[in-house]
Structure to design on (491 residues):
């Protein structure tokens, strides 16, 4: 049936091309799945991006997909396309381990809503992607599943917490991945691994999942989500290209009122009047960018200008800087009740990393912020959302770095208080956005010493397509980077 085409072997093809080829019967879903499974067998032992793969189950799903094509049944937009599912997300018949050994038996009886949406679109789950314990680091290693490495450079983080998802795409294991993001967990790994990451507006993609429990020495403890999860966390896609990520986002868009933040329908985007404006936010006062980071932002700005965007530098930095500081308050205080569970069943790495997190927050907010400070933080968040939404309107985007540093060295958050304390200020572009609940996309721009570098584009609420259009303009004018082609090479 199918044979290698312009993109090489089937595991190298974009998701958009795979879905179209399966629909046209030029390749079969079984051929696609078999190619990806062969790539997993070849490459995954080195990077450990996927931590549970069941080839028989995947191939059976692919056969059902081919039977649907043969029968002339209606086909979803991702029909026959393999996708990885993060180990902190419920998938029927799989343990929602969240990288914690004590949760290895936590097998789910049903899918999370985002997984249901991917299946309904025809995607075929192929493997579970790795995370840090409790998905609370910008690195992706744990005592249960081991450490995930960056396919570009094993000495550098693949990002976290969706590090396995991003590394798997970069290494050719799957063309798409599901992830989630409350502090950069989709966008940062995507940038570290040279792929595209989409953080949707809060409520656009359902965050609903079956109730979760942790077995502790004190008995089962319900893992109820704190307020910041409902207000700031999202489910979203990672893809090899902007077009792939856009296709997956629309497939995952599932307004679902079981999700406390879910919206009943995605509002239509008001048309922009005149050219779309892009405001460049180069840095945050007191945080020095690596020269390569500044160069990536400048390159992206020039490419957007070349595409017809109006590029300016209206000062949005104070709003984003304050949002990043609020993230340290709200996320930290909502994580505090989890510390007892982490102490009982977490690994040494997450305990050390969280100690560094709390130390970084204390430098801004003190050791134990009082209730009035916490409540005022939520109030100030609402003000920042209103002000930034007013600035962006229907026709303005923000262009920012992904991080002030190039991808961190592996386990930098475990290297001592000084180094750990440097990470949080550097990550201000990642942490500012979840507090605001706005959509954002990270897109690759260049290589620096063999490492991919990307930029972040941020839009007003429910302007995902506007943001993706700009990301596409950047991608169209940037080198095509593939880790399997070797450092410094494009294909």
């Amino acid at each position: 049936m199918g044979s290698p085409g312009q993109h090489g072997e089937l595991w190298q093809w974009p998701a958009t091309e795979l879905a179209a080829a399966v629909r046209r019967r030029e390749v079969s879903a079984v051929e696609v799945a078999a190619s990806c499974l062969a790539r997993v067998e070849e490459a995954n032992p080195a990077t450990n991006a996927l931590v549970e793969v069941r080839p028989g189950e995947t191939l059976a799903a692919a056969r059902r997909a081919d039977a649907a094509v043969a029968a002339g049944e209606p086909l979803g937009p991702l029909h026959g396309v393999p996708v990885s599912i993060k180990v902190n997300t419920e998938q029927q018949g799989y343990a929602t381990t969240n990288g914690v050994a004590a949760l290895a038996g936590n097998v789910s009886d049903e899918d999370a809503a985002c997984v249901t949406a991917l299946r309904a679109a025809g995607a075929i789950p192929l493997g579970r992607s790795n995370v840090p314990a409790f998905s609370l680091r910008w690195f992706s290693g744990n005592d249960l599943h081991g450490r995930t490495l960056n396919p570009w450079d094993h000495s550098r983080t693949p990002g976290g917490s969706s590090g396995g998802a991003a590394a798997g795409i970069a290494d050719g294991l799957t063309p798409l991945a599901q992830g989630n993001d409350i502090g950069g967990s989709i966008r940062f790994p995507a940038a570290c691994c040279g792929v595209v990451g989409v953080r949707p507006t809060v409520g656009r993609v359902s965050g609903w999942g079956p109730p979760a429990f942790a077995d502790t020495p004190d008995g089962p403890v319900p893992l109820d989500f704190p307020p910041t999860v409902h207000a700031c966390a999202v489910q979203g896609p990672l893809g090899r290209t902007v077009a792939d990520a856009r296709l997956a986002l629309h497939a995952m868009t599932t307004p679902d009122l079981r999700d406390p933040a879910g919206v009943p329908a995605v509002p239509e985007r008001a048309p922009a009047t005149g050219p779309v404006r892009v405001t460049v936010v180069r840095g945050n006062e007191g945080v020095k960018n690596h020269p390569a980071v500044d160069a990536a932002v400048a390159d992206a700005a020039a490419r957007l200008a070349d595409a017809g965007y109006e590029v300016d530098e209206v000062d949005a930095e104070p709003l984003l800087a304050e949002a990043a500081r609020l993230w340290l308050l709200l996320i930290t205080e909502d994580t505090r009740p989890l510390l007892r569970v982490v102490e009982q069943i977490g690994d040494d790495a997450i305990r050390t990393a969280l100690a560094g997190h709390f130390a970084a927050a204390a430098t801004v907010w003190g050791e134990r912020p009082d209730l009035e400070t916490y409540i005022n933080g939520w109030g100030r968040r609402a003000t920042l959302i209103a002000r930034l939404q007013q600035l962006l309107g229907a026709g303005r985007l923000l262009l920012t770095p992904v991080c002030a540093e190039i991808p961190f060295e592996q386990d930098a958050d475990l290297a001592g208080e000084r180094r750990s304390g440097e990470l949080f200020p550097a990550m201000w572009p990642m942490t500012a956005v979840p507090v605001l609940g706005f959509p954002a996309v990270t897109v690759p721009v260049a290589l620096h010493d063999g490492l991919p570098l990307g930029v972040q584009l941020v839009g007003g609420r429910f302007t995902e397509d506007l943001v993706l259009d700009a990301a596409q303009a950047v991608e169209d004018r940037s080198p095509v980077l593939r880790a399997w082609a070797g450092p410094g090479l494009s294909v």
Notes: The longest strand covers residues 440-448. The mean pLDDT is 94. The longest helix spans residues 371-392.
